[in-house]
# Entry
Amino acid sequence: MRRLLVILALAAAVLPAQAGASAIANIAARKTTSLNGKWRTIVDPYENGYFDFRMQVSKEGYFLDVKPKDKTDRVEYDFDTAPLLDVPGDWNSQRESLFFYEGTVWYRQKFDFAPRPGTRAFLYFGAANYEAIVFLNGEKLGTHTGGFTPFSFEITGKVKASGNSLVVKVDNKRHLEGVPTLNTDWWNYGGLTRDVLLVEVPETFVEDYLVQLKKGSADTIAGWVKLNGARPRQQVAIRIPEAGISTTVTTDDKGYAEFTVPAKLTLWSPANPKLYDVIVASENDTVRDRIGFRTIEVRGTEILLNGKSLFLRGVSIHEEAPYRGGRAYSLDDARTLLGWAKEMGCNFVRLAHYPHNENMVREAERMGLMVWSESPIYWMIQWQDPATYANAANQVAESIARDRNRAAIVLWSVANETPITDARNDFLRRLARHVRTLDPTRLVTAALMHHEEAGAGQNRVAVIDDPFGADVDVLGCNEYIGWYDGLPEKLDRSQWKSIYDKPLIMSEFGADALFGMHGDPLTRWSEEYQEGIYQRQVAMLNKIPFLRGTTPWVLMDFRSPRRPLPNIQDFFNRKGLVSLRGDKKKAFYVLQEFYRSKAD
Ligand code: GCU
# Structure
């Protein structure tokens, strides 16, 4: 039964919204050629390069990348003289004229590539926001929807030794039925925002694998391997030399095999983020990975890592590039952001509101930071629309497929601040089941809704009774008492209760402050207002008996189209504890002290 579920899940991972796309695990361990760099681009707000005047796919589309044959030939675009944009990178922060741009941009890269005989070739995209249509030498390879997960297309037999034309139509237009939908409090950075790579693999290769501890066990590894190719039945060895582990399986006619093996391991934890060299070797393909092993579970209102209850000292982070702004993607970006979180005393980070780049997740793992990974089911999603569900389910599946071997990821979040309706509950329950099918080993959470009741005297009681709370392992809840909800003093008379015997992570709280703006604690936008909010939040949070973690909003100021206030916001959400340039606001030290007290 488990075997069938995994194969179905693997198949489901690419089916719904992604024509032709496939998922190859652990790209960094493969033989790759980078196509990053300067790409020629055409900004095409009317999608004139794709549709003709009858809105049919054009016979003269830009994807053909042609040049005039002679002086009489009419060709109304020319990639060779078109402006350049960097890949990886969003277009909004690279060119002033594209700052607010939402629509289609065509990207073109020329390359030579002669794969070795007996190998296969794939084009890999770390992410493209939001919808990508990919063409090679004028032929459509496929499409991908969703701005934050990887996808690949096979180009074996389609790629030429030289002069290949790779054209990608990227469109970041927002859609009501999209995931995310029309309204978000983050900048809709468009473009080829992560690596673009050529990948060369053997004819039959190790497409995917899971090597993690069996659910609920600290001394048994349970996993599987999946081969892709004409010779699916093979011997595959899984080895962890440092732990003296070596087991061999024989894959079936679908290239799939499961294994369990006893294991005596040093478990991964924030205090000791131990990673092992893991080798998955088929008859002619070997994939190496660095993998940690840990157990994560809940017991009543406790969250247990490796069997021990702990407090998740976290912070929420957007994938905004420190110092320069724009979509973050690099290892340096990750080190800077996570370095600030470590400095704050964190052992946990909430990567909001979408799957962040792999550099971020792997660096968190190396640094000993547990991760809340989230898919952008955010605010007002079209719950009744089956295509919206398929899109959401696919983004979740692609995210899990990329990160299933990351010990640092302990929580999958399937929703943020979504309104309570029957359609929403059905949608999210189905999505939570989908997550548990794809990965039964991790915890499921969401930023749930809560409501307020009168308490004794002037006191207010926030009640967590969101019906979807019954379907998650860990309750998440966002609150802005003292900022959107009353003034700071309200925190002094606020209590919390929950109808669930489950742990709570207060997944958002905070206030906006412009670094360097000072005033009394009631002056909005001043560091003192934010500092006061944090002092009072900490006092309130310490009184919540079932609180097991916090991820205040937010580590660093980030761009948002909903924040136009001149000279203060200037299209930045200023709830960061550090500014874009890394300047620490007064509240940073309040949280640092809180986490010092929690660590002890
Ligand atoms: C919301 C939301 C965030 C947003 C924050 C804010 O709760 O989840 O995406 O940025 O509040 O208003 O600052």
User: Anything to note?
Assistant: The longest strand covers residues 205-213. Residues 129 and 147 are 4 Å apart (CA to CA). Residues 13-17 have pLDDT under 50 and may be disordered.
